[in-house]
Design a protein that fits this description.
The protein is of the alpha+beta class. It has two domains: 158 residues, Rossmann fold (3-Layer(aba) Sandwich); 94 residues, Elongation Factor Tu (Ef-tu), domain 3 (Beta Barrel). The protein is 19% helix and 28% strand. The chain contains six helices and 15 strands. Strands 2-1-3-5-4-6-7 form a seven-stranded mixed beta sheet, with helices on both faces.
């Protein structure tokens, strides 16, 4: 490991499906701060749908690019906690990731040309390596905190190459028709799809966008859309998004994650 990588990263982010009703998140933060009081802890979200690994992967990948080099990202959406699934520490580019080996890091790693992953096995840096219900507190929080103090990745376990990864669903193109899917619904009920300008070359708003047999209207921004009408735009992250001004598009039109979204390009 290069000397620059040994400098202690201080920012540690948390992405979980724990919610805020219970003390889970506070317990993880307490562990981190007990080991490294100088750590700066940032909550990405704790409102990932319970057990929805793909949703957690999407939220994490959306946030990572805006954090500085050396940031450590803990992600815990872990329906397999207590099983034989591995805990891992991953270095990808200038960022580090700690969590279960269940695909939660698939999207961030798909954007990395090369990464190194390590199976967490060194009991010196954990409370309970076989914790049956709360490895976020007992494994991942202490590992991230210890790593933030400048330890090399190799201290935590052996390097591995067989990570559990899933491939994000890609839009399908057939002539002038592109078929995508709803991959996320935010707290406002806005509907995020897996379609970007790169897969919609020639569209530029000329054509139709349909979901659940409802045709959406083009809008430049939320404020400039029609009242009570399903509209679409490319959001600030580059995804095709469906919305209703000041209301929940998902609720109004019964849209759910996984629903198909069809774009037909008008080349006339």
């Amino acid at each position: 490991m290069k000397s620059s990588e040994r400098s202690a990263p201080r920012i540690i982010t948390l992405t979980t499906d724990f919610g805020t009703k219970d003390s889970f998140v506070a317990e993880m933060k307490g562990v981190i701060l007990s080991i490294n009081p100088q750590a700066v802890i940032v909550d990405v979200t704790h409102e990932v749908r319970p057990h929805a690994i793909d949703e957690g992967a999407f939220v994490l990948a959306s946030a990572v690019r805006y954090f500085p080099k050396g940031t450590i990202h803990i992600a815990v959406v872990d329906p397999g906690v207590g099983s034989c699934r591995r805990g891992i520490l991953v270095k990808a580019g200038d960022h580090f990731f700690v969590g279960p080996d269940n695909g939660i890091f698939s999207l961030v790693l798909s954007k990395s040309d090369d990464f190194r992953a390590f199976h967490i096995t060194n009991e010196k840096f954990v409370f309970d390596l076989k914790s049956p219900t709360f490895q976020g507190r007992d494994v991942f929080a202490p590992v991230a905190a210890c790593f933030s103090k400048g330890l090399p990745c190799e201290e935590f376990g052996k390097e591995i190459s067989d990570l559990v990864l899933f491939e994000a669903p890609k839009p399908e193109v057939s002539g002038d028709t592109i078929s995508g899917r709803v991959i996320f619904i935010d707290r406002f009920g806005n509907v995020i799809t897996n379609m970007t300008p790169e897969c919609l070359v020639g569209f530029e708003g000329r054509g139709t966008v349909t979901v659940n047999n409802v045709c959406a209207e083009k809008a430049e921004c939320y404020a400039m859309s029609a009242e009570d009408r399903l509209s679409f735009l490319f959001n600030s992250s580059g995804n095709l998004e469906l919305f209703v001004k000041s209301k929940s598009a998902a609720d109004m039109y019964g849209i759910r994650r996984g629903d198909p979204v069809v774009v037909r390009i008008d080349k006339g």
